[in-house]
Amino acid sequence: MIVLGNVTVTGTSARGVPAPRLAGLSLSCAAGLTLVLGSKADGAELLGDLAAGVLAPKRGTATLFDQRASSMRGHVARVGERSLLPEHATVKATLELAWALRAEALGSTASAPSTDERLARFALGHLASAQVRSLELPERRALAFCEALTGLAPVLVLSEPLAHVAAGALPAIAETLRGRVDDGAVVLVTALSDRGLPVAKQRLSLQRGVLAPALAAPQHDAPGAIRVHGTDLRPLTQVLAVHPDVHQMLWTDAPSGSPPSTDAAPHAVLTLHGPSRLALAKALQAAATAHGVALDQWELL
Amino acid sequence: MSTSRLLFAFPMARLRHSPRGYLPALPWALLALGQAAALRGASHNRALTSLFSDLALPLGAMALVALVFGTKSLFSACESAMAFGAPARRVAAAHIALAVGVSSLFAAVLGAAVCAVGHGSQDPALPTDLITTAGVSALSGAAYGALFAFGSTFGASGGGRMALLLGDWLLGRGVAFAFVFPRLHAERLLGAPSPLELSPQTSSLMLVMMTLVFSGFAVLRVSRQAR
Q1: A105 vs B82: CB contact, 8 Å cut-off?
Q2: Beta bridge partners of A64
Q3: B85/A73 touch (CB, cutoff 8 Å), yes or no
Q4: Which of B6, B13, B81 comes nearest A88 by C-beta?
Q5: What pLDDT does residue A149 have?
Q6: Chain A interface, mutation test: which of B5, B18, B79, B84, most A Cβ atoms within 10 Å?
Q7: Min distance B87 CA to chain A CA atoms (Å)
Q8: I need a surface site. Which of A129, A194, A205, B87 has the fewest CB within 10 A?
Q9: Which residue of B has its CA nearest to A90?
Q10: What is the pLDDT of residues A242-278, one digit of tens each?
Q11: Contact predicate B59/B25, CB 8 Å
Q12: Quick check: B3 and A98 CB within 8 A?
């Protein structure tokens, strides 16, 4: 299980682009797929590196199975923008070395599957004897995903698994990723879109370093309502009450339908009614982000 | 495959597949041999204590350390093995051991070659002289290898190597830095006059100590960076 507790970290800035920054971010990923929708500029790459123990937080804690994440590198397969592969080793030797080292770190005695079969599955069979440094970017990424998805690591932290990958490897990545999620691996994926990815157990959106629950994109923009659960939703009411997409708010613990005026409601359930679910979702997300309100969960009605 | 062999596989792959990485060491080696040939017949000490110890030994060692680390910092060189779960200390130790070993072997072979080429009639018998020179050069090469491995823990691309090389050139002959840089001890053992009144055994011991201390510090720095 990955747990980030109130972490703060700043990335490196590229030319003309401000450095991404995560401040006071908390996240917990149990078995299954956790999907974080966000860009590199929002801090998605930083988040992945933190979760995988590649990067140490400036403040806060990053743990993996209750150990410091950086001491559990053998348990995590990280495929990010920059994949750490042995440049001078051959493609085949890379997979064999990775398997042997992970087996040692995990104390696993599982017999290694055929490397040739693993490579063939990811359309890399013809590159088995090529050096890693000679690979093009899509082939490098395919190799990194091959090692991560067919290897021993019980935790996967992946960035954009379906982008910038050799076309021949895409079906294997999608299928193997789905299989690993179904098998109960802890999988954290950061991506700009959920297209082609398995159904996430937890969906979050990362905007400018702030994590918030992300709504599942509705198949069609149907009229409807959203039920929201939160520890203290009152700060949202000021914003949502005047929002053009929200025409009614109902508080389940306030019979009159008005928000509780005292501090007596530590947990409230707010039901929003409006012209469309999509508009409501956007309104809710913007209001929650603007006011730093943590939403426990919500459901589309 | 045992874990130790696995850890050595990463730097070994760089040594095997980067033939051009040896090139920076070559000109200095040829210069030292050329000077030894030019001084042939005179005492070979002159050849060993000028271009060999001044240039070929430190520059060759630095080039080979850079080759083992892939011209990166030591931490970056270790990253790919660490990403697969190998413990930082052991990965770093494997890299440093190989760098020190290669540097030592280079120095021993080149020192013996310079000795053979420049051997004069007043020098000790050639077989004994070869063995002594190779041994002393190996110790010096190992100390330089460890020094540059330690230097490789500074800077994003291991720029500390160059800083320590400059330090060795500029300050290495100073008595005050005899415990930091190998130059004084290497030259003393190769036959140069020394301002330090140390026995050859003490200088040899100093080189061994430097090898161990610099290697240890390098391992510590990598494991700290990995946290």
Answers
A1: no
A2: A2, A67
A3: yes
A4: B13
A5: 92
A6: B84
A7: 8
A8: A129
A9: B13
A10: 777 777 777 766 544 555 555 544 566 777 777 777 7
A11: yes
A12: no
What's the CA gap between A118 and A101, in Å, rounded?
Answer: 17
* Phi/psi of residue B109, nearest 5 degrees: -65, -45
Q: Residues B169-184: what's their mean pLDDT?
A: 84
Give the confidence band of A223 by pLDDT, cuts at 50, 70, 90: low
Q: How is residue A190 written in tokens?
A: 């950061």
> Residue B133's closest CA among B114, B154, B153, B106?
B114
Q: Is residue A142 within 8 Å of residue A136, measured between CB atoms?
A: no
Q: Could you say which of B9, B79, B227 has the minimum Cβ distance to residue A56? A: B227
Contact status of A254 with chain B (Cβ, < 8 Å): no
Answer positive or negative: Cα dihedral of B217, B223, B225, B227: negative
> For all residues of chain A together, what is the average pLDDT?
82
pLDDT in tens, B193-212: 777 778 889 899 999 999 99
pLDDT for the residue A220: 55
Residue B110 phi, psi (nearest 5): -70, -40
ipTM rounded to 2 decimals = 0.76
CB contact under 8 A, A89 and B6: no
What's the Cα-to-Cα distance from A160 to each of A79, A189, B72, B171, rounded to whole Å?
9, 7, 28, 51
- When CB atoms are compared, the residue of A54, A70, A101 closest to B84 is A101
- B225: amino acid identity, one letter: Q
User: Considering the entire predicted model, what is its pTM?
Assistant: 0.76
In sequence order, the β-bridge partners of residue B171 are: none
Q: Residue A241 gets which letter from DSSP?
A: T
The H or E element spanning position A193 is none
> What pLDDT digit, counting tens, does each position of A150-198 carry?
999 999 999 988 888 888 888 888 889 989 988 889 999 998 888 778 8
- The H-or-E segment that residue A253 falls in is none
Distance between CA atoms of residues B112 and B132, nearest Å: 9
DSSP string, A68-123: EGGG-GGGEEEE-SS----TTSBHHHHHHHHHHHHHHHHT--PPPPPHHHHHHHTT
Q: Determine the residue type at A25.
A: L
A258, burial (CB in 10 Å: exposed 0-12, middle 13-18, buried 19+): exposed
Alpha carbons B218 and B145: distance in angstroms, whole number? 11
What is the spatial distance between Cα A38 and Cα A15, in angstroms, rounded to a whole number?
20
